[in-house]
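Structure, all two chains, one model.
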Amino acid sequence: MNMKKENKSLYTKAVITIGQLWENPIIKGIILLALALFVYFLPKMATLYFQRIAIMVAFYAIGAYTAVLLTTYRGTNYLVAVILGACLAGAFGALLALSTMRLSGTYVTIVTMAFFYVISSIILNWDSVTKGSVGVLNIPAPNLFGMKLTMKNGGYFYLIMFYVALTILVTKLVINSKVGRAIKAVRDDELAAIMMGINNKKYKIIAYTLAAFFAGLAGTLYGPFMGYINNATFNYDICISALVIVILGGIGTVKGAIIGAIIISPLGELLRGLTTFMKGLPEWMQISQPEQWRFVIYGMIMVIMMRFRPQGILGGQSKLPYKMPKGVERKVMK
Amino acid sequence: MALLEAKGITKKFGGLVAVDKLSFEVKQGEIVSIIGPNGAGKTTVFNMITGIYEIDEGEIVFDNKVISNKSPIYIVEAGISRTFQNIRLFKQMRVIENVMVGTHIKTNYNFFDALFRTKRFRNEERKATQKAIDILESIDLGDYINDYANNLPYGLQRRLEIARAIATGAKLLILDEPAAGMNPQESENLLNFIRSLQAKGYTILIIEHDMNVVMNISDRIYVMDYGKRIANGTPSEIASNPDVIKAYLGDASEILEEDDAV
């Protein structure tokens, strides 16, 4: 009897510990996942992932700042602010698609990099609106129909889950349609796609707009989660995490992005846990911020994956048969 | 009545006249080949027909519609589809998806139909999938539906490229060196395949270097050299045409003169 009770309390303790360990990283990871997913849409992403992700961070920042500034200083309804933030990011995506339309390869990369720096310097220098390096403080918790969603009451967690589900759903719906096939075709071989009657410009704009829209949507989550954002929030750190997630999980797959996010996101927290462990070690072995070691691990993951499994854990060609719509028949059966 | 008619088409790249007042026609149900030495301008002609290049002079008429200097999309919708000299499949997509990309212009729904999975989406998607499967089965690719395009053997990749072109609903198929890089067995299979397409009512225009293929399947042949048409006729007429032999092998008198100089 006593034994049983002890077991139970041990179990509860374990659940609580795991819960604490994952609470913060899961949310961060999900934001990153949402970010990583959209890379799928970008054409010709087989090369130069990093720059493409850097630009996603720019859209992420646009979404975050729009929503945060509106809710904090204008008192705009949370839902309206989120929609405006995502739409503004989407509009910038369309603009960027238009401006890179006639470019290819490295030149697209240069323009997208430039775009990232333009956005970050606007955030830093447009003090009157973005508050520059001081940042936006006291960001209110999302308020949905009179319900305050905070980390403490768990509402914020469900909100994030809802966004992620929405993102995955829309991604799936778009991929498995004429639109998704056209985007993939343009990505694989633009000229051949044009020769199939695909309007390459239209589908590039759709791809960039969707990617930017969802990156913006993910951005709107970040502000209320941290309660504070400034120009340094949207740096290459996020780019690198997102890059490692997609490379580890598998480029161009939704499943891969989820697995990657689940593995990578708690890494910082786990390493921070080493602080107590390190106190027992001789002085020369102690490191002040063990969580910074995650960048070493990121680097190792990238090298190992590129060497042994460049398509990622779940990436590459699916072995499952193609999913046919209902009512399709094969006249000749094997 | 010609299905496709080129009337004195010219293409200049700066000072170079790549195609010079070329005229030809392809009748409904024919297999017509364009041959010529390397650099004769054959692929340029294909790029002019399919709307990749603008035409400097002349006019191309297809199915009673002027298609010269129209967008590639307009031309595909009019009923012309092509394959490429070096295979250009969508390599990271499945065989069936490749063919379904071909059905793109015939699949009639928009982004929001896809997002909300409307009835129109489901109907159109079912029709497109069925069409892709029917095409693949009709050309013996039915067993490869789930494979990825870049895993197919070379000969089948060629065949898939043609399947993709058929899926656009094209009446005229333009094949750019379909037998390039094939072994004799593969090109024999290709010959039979192209003949079977003709039997199904497709009209076919081919650029080809493989004389075995050209002489065996063409109803008529046009010969180009330096952007100009130098001969046309049936395979047997072309084989004995002195101008063609001169373009391919050089002039007997030139050889003699060179010998004298030495």
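Chain B touches chain A through 48 residues (CB under 8 Å).
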